[in-house]
Design a protein that fits this description.
The protein is mainly beta. It has one domain: TonB-dependent receptor, beta-barrel domain (Maltoporin, Chain A). The chain is built from five helices and 38 strands. The chain is globular, with a radius of gyration of 27 Å.
């Protein structure tokens, strides 16, 4: 298998460059206009889209007043839980290109690393709890591990604290909802290209066309190629298309047809190994945790350019129809079918071969071929109703979901290690074995060679693990207005979650062990809820207290996450295969907070104190058995600010303090009292912009994350860091603007993903991005 470095001369880049030249050519008259405009003392229009009739006008504000989901029955200022919305303007100003880029602006969210069993892709931790399976697109679960793009995303909504009542199973730490760009009335065209350091070339088009009084279409296109600052060999190449059609806009019945397609073909980053191998002195301890060791050069890449690759695909089709039964009552049905695919072989810089501390790195191959499909139908009824003279803002609905996952792998023959003098295969990677003696499976810590001519063998392993799941759910939410000052927020959801699993041989037959088929099943029924009381001392502010729960059943992630999945195939003490009798893990959250819209409601300030406890956590009590015996806890405070300090000065900032603890790790645990992995005690973000003149805006930010443990044993760690960013935007005319972003301004070497063992992922170094944007 062969992979080549991204080159400016590759055909995708030539195609992207041609698109960029075409866009530039169409802008010539507007560039000429800029010179004329500069001689006139006139302000240039700030909005990017021209609108007609009921067209949507693009907001430039950092403050958002309401979440997109009708399940949040009140504006955010009156919602008794922590909800942060990253609007389009923050995404643009910070130069974010992926979901992970955008989420760095919210404190209390970190990312974990993937490998083989735990898949590559976005693995966010919210308030210390793994949220890999808790991402939604337009309020429908987005199953399947992915690295999510944002070229067709309008905003990102993060709800912190247990959220199963709204999102369904999982959601122990919260949920992430991505709001897509949809067709709307009015004509507009936004196009742009970004050229930057490390051969970055990115092209986007966002066009909306109204073709009748009540119908419109929208098309978003993406082409992206880049290497990674500060990392040898790594490159990313992806393209996407997202069409949207809308009918009946402005009428009582509305139909939306949306489709999303994204493909990628990358040479992925294999990370940096930890320095102390397990079982070798000096031993890893909580007092002396192991940290990444790059051998003296932070750009070192330990993978193999002729072997490693990662290809992904996502296809999501949605049909949504909405009808106003009256001015106060609406019914909506959403039908969604989506599928995702991952196909990769990547090198994990493994520290388990007696290496690293002697200057060598074992190139362990992590492989995966997985396909996940999801079909969901949600029917919602929402609106306002008066009962006994009291106003109720409610939302109720039902959900039916079918999910199917299939995971297989590659056979990668690395058994080329020479025998030890005793004649048995060596289990170590020593300096003498670097390069050819190990078949290039062993490389130098300080000076790896990614272009090594690896001479192992690769073949597809069609044996797989197949997982199916069915969800049936009913839910209701209501905000009861007792008076102008007192509100009661309530929510309740019932889920019936059934999942089945089997191990399948390459022939397709179910694997049989000791005469017993390797398969299992679990049926979980659970009720989750939320309850909050809101007191409004003024119209623009609230004080609240709330309680919320979540439930995470066995098989929650369909093999697309890191969970222990005791659904079957695990023999008990007598050698019999188990049928799962595990109960769902349960999480509860207590929260007290306050929210205020100040400065003529231009600025939102929030503060809350929370305590989240997970009970009934699944733990392994011996080599063959699991029990619901664990307990973890995270408590802390959060502060946030978003909006305008003045007409020209905007801010988007936050701070989170999290005190985490493994309260009970089960009968065999030696980790009681330890901090939870990927849970920094302190984290803070600050992003701000100032409009110096009607044409010129400058901005910058700082992002701080405290030390983070990679494992619950607290024996692996990545250090704290501060990252600084800066930007400047200049409007050449009402149709053309330029924007320069410099990310990681000081070229800080830091790690933004910590795996429990073996390795951590290094973040990009200093990156400069210059964007030219066109608006018509």
């Amino acid at each position: 298998m062969s992979r080549q470095l991204v080159s400016p001369a590759t055909s995708p880049r030539l195609l992207a460059s041609a698109i960029g030249m075409a866009i530039t050519a169409t802008s010539a008259p507007h560039l000429a206009y800029a010179a004329d405009a500069s001689s006139k003392d006139k302000a240039i229009a700030l909005d990017a889209t021209s609108i007609t009739g009921e067209a949507q006008q693009e907001s430039t504000d950092y403050k958002v007043d309401k979440a997109s989901s009708q399940k949040y029955t009140e504006p955010l200022v009156d919602t008794p839980r922590s909800v942060t919305v990253i609007p389009q303007q923050v995404i643009k100003d910070t130069g974010a290109l992926t979901m992970q880029d955008a989420l760095r602006t919210i404190p209390g969210i970190t990312f974990g690393a993937g490998e083989g069993g735990n898949p590559q892709g976005d693995r966010p931790f919210i308030r210390g709890f793994d949220a890999q399976g808790d991402t939604y697109l337009d309020n429908v679960r987005d199953t399947g591990s992915q690295t999510r793009e944002i070229f067709a995303i309008e905003s990102i909504e993060v709800s912190k604290g247990p959220n199963s009542a709204i999102g369904g199973r999982g959601a122990a730490g919260g949920t992430i909802n991505m709001v897509s760009k949809k067709a709307h009335l009015g004509d507009s065209f936004d196009g742009g290209f970004t050229w930057g350091s490390d051969q970055t070339q990115r092209y986007t088009i966002d066009g909306n066309y109204q073709f009748t009084d009540n119908a419109a279409g929208r098309l978003n296109l993406l082409s992206h190629q880049s290497n990674v600052a500060g990392r040898d060999s790594v490159n990313y190449d992806r393209w996407g298309v997202a069409p949207s059609l809308a009918f009946g806009l402005g009428t009582e019945t509305r139909l939306n047809l949306d489709f999303y397609h994204l493909e990628s073909d990358d040479l992925p980053d294999s990370g940096i190994p930890y320095s102390i191998p397990t079982g070798l002195a000096p031993a890893r301890t909580k007092a002396n945790p192991d940290k990444p060791d790059d051998g003296g050069d932070s750009s070192n890449f330990y993978g193999l350019t002729d072997r490693d690759f990662r290809k992904t695909r996502a296809d999501i089709a949605t049909i949504a129809i909405e009808h106003d039964l009256s001015e106060a009552l609406t019914v909506k049905n959403t039908l969604r079918h989506g599928s995702t695919m991952q196909d990769y072989i990547l090198t994990q810089p493994d520290d388990s071969k007696g290496n690293v501390n002697n200057g060598s790195v074992w190139r362990r191959a992590n492989t995966r071929v997985s396909n996940t499909s999801t079909t969901t139908n949600q029917t919602d009824l929402f609106g306002d109703v008066y009962i006994a003279g009291f106003k109720n803002s409610f939302s109720t609905g039902i959900e039916f979901t079918r999910e199917e996952g299939e995971r297989s792998s590659y056979n990668v023959n690395t058994d080329t290690t020479p025998a030890t003098p005793g004649g048995t295969p060596s289990t170590n990677c020593t300096p003498a074995m670097i390069g050819a003696p190990s078949g290039f499976n062993c490389t130098s810590l300080s000076n790896p060679t990614p272009s090594d001519p690896w001479n192992g063998a690769i073949s597809r392993n069609y044996a797989s693990i197949d997982t199916d799941a069915n969800t049936r759910a009913i839910y209701v939410f209501d905000t009861l207005e007792l008076s102008s000052q007192w509100l009661v927020n309530m929510g309740l959801r019932y889920d019936h979650f059934e999942t089945k699993y089997r191990s399948r041989a390459a022939s397709g037959a179910t694997v049989v062990t000791n005469g017993v088929p390797v398969k299992g099943e679990d049926t979980s029924e659970f009720v989750t809820g939320q309850f909050g009381v809101v007191y409004k001392p003024a119209e623009n502010g609230s004080i609240y207290a709330s309680y919320a729960t979540s439930a995470t059943p066995p098989g929650n992630s369909l093999g697309e996450g890191s969970e222990i999945n005791p659904l079957g195939g695990t023999p008990d003490r007598n050698g019999n295969l188990l049928k799962s009798d595990m109960e769902p893990e349960t999480t509860k959250n207590y929260e007290i907070g306050t929210k205020w819209d100040l400065l003529n409601e231009r600025l939102s300030l929030t503060a809350d104190i929370f305590r989240t406890e997970k009970d009934n956590a699944r733990v392994q009590v011996d080599s063959t058995s699991f029990e619901n015996a664990g307990k973890t806890r995270v408590q802390g405070i959060e502060l946030s600010a978003s909006g305008k300090l003045t007409d020209k000065w905007q801010v988007f900032a936050g701070y989170a303090y999290m005190d985490s603890e493994q309260v009970d790790g089960g009968p065999l645990s030696v980790t009681n009292g330890n901090e939870l992995p990927n849970t920094p005690k302190n984290s803070g973000t600050l992003w701000t912009t100032y409009q110096v003149t009607p044409r010129l805006t400058i901005g910058g930010g700082a992002f701080y994350v405290d030390d983070v443990f990679g494992s619950v044993a607290n024996t692996t760690m990545v250090d704290s860091y501060v990252r600084y960013d800066a930007m400047a935007a200049y409007k050449l005319s009402k149709n053309v603007d330029l924007q320069l972003n410099v990310q990681n301004l000081t070229d800080e070497t830091y790690y933004d993903k910590a795996f429990s063992t073996h390795f951590a992922n290094q973040a990009p170094g200093r990156t400069a991005l210059l964007s030219t944007n066109f608006h018509f």
